[in-house]
Amino acid sequence: MFGTLVLVLAGVSSAYSATFNVTVGADGQLAYSPAFVRAAPGDFVNFIFNPKNHTVTQSSFAQPCTPLDGGYDTGFVPVAAGTVDLPVMQLPISQADTPIWFHCKQPVGNHCGQGMVFAINPPTEGNNTFDAFQAQARATLNATATTSVTSVWSTPSPQPWATATATVTNGTSVWTTTYTSYLGSVPPSPAPQPIDHKIIVGVDTQFIYSPANISAAIGDTVTFEFHPKNHTVTQSSFSNPCQPLEQSTGTVGFKSGFQPVSADDTEFPTFRITINDTAPIWGYCGQTGHCAAGMVFAINAVESGPNNFANFVKLAKQTGATSTSTSLAPATTTGSSNNNSNAALSNAKISWIAIGFSIVAGLMF
């Protein structure tokens, strides 16, 4: 009897709602299809992710390629070529009075700048139509291209280094130490009192470490505190900012692994390293596209030469866009609750899980 009631209620619910299927990146195209839908409260939009690595990220008409603070975001959903069961994220619609704008935030190839945008209930006339929204998105690509043409920059040569021996005095203690020496690096003297340096990973949901460039003495520690989303702390090298150190040099470097953190978490995971010498330490976030967006850090960078932190960031943005070595995090439901009164969108949900649960529940009763 209860099972029959569940089915009846499901039938009543479906009679008053519609489901829109929107393909994301079908046939290798940088597009959502259809590009916009007209939905009513109670309807659902299924985003079906095709091969490559895309997102559905809420933005605004004024800034089509900038994520809306607190807005809906599926996060990156990597899909391998040849995948048969494509991942689906389902978005329930709770209001229809205001247009809702979206874009793909993949920085590699600037998907948004190439017109990969989507809308729910855009106006059919006036200044804020879907065509106008897409035109504004494409204008950001032109602005980026204009900037890059006028910027001339060449990759610095690898930083020369050697093994050096020095006599170190600390109070009444004197000892000889062997260390890695770089031209311009700080002396190999330990701090009188070791300091723990704290670096926030993904502060305010941005693709940054804060602070991103620090100096630390021998014996100091550096604690990385992971904030919401899903980031890593991965050691690299100056010449290959977006590759693990082991892959580019053969030397095993430190890796935190992926650290997923929910938006409502109040306790944050940490990862700590100890500074053993004064050689520059370079690192990046191994999440897809983050290094190419400039999410890198440095410890004891030599700012007086060409191998400085600013050039490290530039090199990451250039080489990260073509790197295929970055590990992919498992596709997860990373949409955050929307606090914007103009949208009122809920968290993303994998529809196949919900559908499977409903079927099982129906069979049980």
Automatic annotation (TrEMBL):
Lineage: Eukaryota, Fungi, Dikarya, Basidiomycota, Agaricomycotina
Keyword Secreted: no
Transmembrane feature ranges: none
CDD domains registered for this protein in UniProt: Cupredoxin
Protein's name according to its UniProt entry: Cupredoxin
Keywords assigned: Signal
Originating species: Macrolepiota fuliginosa MF-IS2
Signal peptide range: 1-17
Origin superkingdom: Eukaryota
InterPro entries xref list: Cupredoxin (IPR008972), Ser-rich/MCO-related (IPR052953)
